[in-house]
Amino acid sequence: MIRLLTASSLTLALLLILPGCKVDPTSPDHWEKSLGKARRPQDKVRVIETLRSSGHLDARFLPMLHEHLASERKPEVKAAVARALGDMKNPASVGPLESAVDVGASDSATNLLNKELAAALGEIGDPKAAPVLLKLLTARDNYTRIEAVEALGRMRVSEAVEPLVQLATDEGVEPFLNRKAIEALGRIGDARAIPALMRTLTKERRGVSFYVESSFSLFQLGQPAADALLAALEGKDTELTQWVRKNGINPASYSFKAAEILGDLRERRAESALLQQLAFKNEDPRIQAGVRARAADALARMRSAAAVKPLTALVSEPDAGLRREYTHALKRLGGREALPALEKAAGQGDWYAREAAIEALTMLGDERELPAVEKLAAAELAKTAAECEESGGEGCGDPAALGKKRAETIARHGKRLEAAKACGADAGCWAKKLQDTDKGVLERAALEVGRGKTAAHVGALLGRMTEKDPDTRMALILGVEWLVEDTKEAAAQVKSALPALEKQLSEEKSRTEYVRANEDLRRLVARVQRQKT
Description:
Layout (H helix, E strand, L loop, with lengths): L6 H11 L10 H10 L3 H14 L7 H10 L3 H14 L5 H6 L8 H17 L5 H7 L5 H14 L5 H9 L5 H14 L5 H7 L3 E2 L2 E2 L1 H11 L1 H11 L4 H9 L5 H13 L6 H7 L7 H17 L6 H5 L7 H14 L5 H7 L5 H14 L5 H22 L7 H15 L1 H9 L3 H7 L5 H13 L6 H5 L7 H17 L1 H9 L1 H10 L7 H18 L1
Helix pairs in contact: 2-3, 3-5, 4-5, 5-7, 7-9, 8-9, 9-11, 10-11, 11-13, 12-13, 13-14, 13-16, 14-16, 16-18, 17-18, 18-20, 20-22, 21-22, 23-24, 25-26, 26-27, 27-29, 29-30, 29-32, 31-32
């Protein structure tokens, strides 16, 4: 990697190259002379990289840089010039950059040059560059192809759809190239990509799944993708069904994955099918649970009032993980209808199943449920002792201490009920609770504000978007989404916050603890961008 010079080292370097020359770094003539005096390729690269970091690059430098791009023999120097032209983003550079491309290159230096040329053309974003970028999709170097793919995606080049579909489904290339092509198809947003994306949704290669990229691309495509996903969910896409059988893919994969994306898209036409999937049966209990859980999640995301009753009937589910899915859906749906069943479930099952019901009880209730929660806390010592005696488990070496710890956890959940007692249905009061230090209160406040349909509070939600707890952050994102869906004023405010949200996504890209929450955040950004256009 080329190290950029600091201001002091720049001065020293130039004094060594041009002894006695007056330093005027704002002048193209000065930099032209500097390049002329630099004999070795690495010295020329150093001068160009220093120019890039100097802050002096502007349109005056274009003739000089175009001339050097054409006349330089060393690919590494040309690559440095390409990076500088990419920084400037001037459409006048498209022609010179195209002329420097060597699609048939096989040596590493020229491959690097092609990569930088593609990147520069992508930064400029002029549609005139599309033909040469399409040619670079066939380059021998994978990194060059990636830059071309990303450039075509950012530029939304419709002519790129068919070659990108081929690349997305090509089993002869590296999986990361498939992924990049899938992502680019989502950015372009052309419905011709949907059949391929429906297949990459469940297709795996070398143990690599393309679900994350495919699901987001389908989300970006919006209504046309919803049509295809709904047909798959209802088993009406015969061509896809035949492909699934031929490739040995479990048909339940589409019940699972299509449901999730349809929920993200708020596709109300899927409500009936999703309600049916709450009773989905499969000989494999893991598949059965997964399909039911995703149906519950999708119904909650689309705020399906019809889902409350069937979900309420499921909250006594003995499996703690599946019960949590049902109760999590109910606490997002809101209302008091499920409270009696949740109170009953809070006393049944193991600790993790009981706690799932208690969380939902305190997310939906108010001061009327405080006595019930106090009773549950008081009973926990005995319940923990009995559980430890029956099945053991972590912490059961000291059942009394474990029971006390769990009772304290129940009491903390009860703080949500105290907040509900103070706020009731007052969205302004809940907006103030977004500053609460208790993450449980903050989570409930986020959903209550989201339900309030008051655009004035969207800023309070956005102000907590960097919340460290992933589950709380997901509630904040959902609250913002609901306000965006309900009010144009909220959508306008979120549009102005897009640069900050995009920066957050970029900075947290490698933070594994935020993967799920930031997938939701990506969809929020895409939803608002779609409204913007």
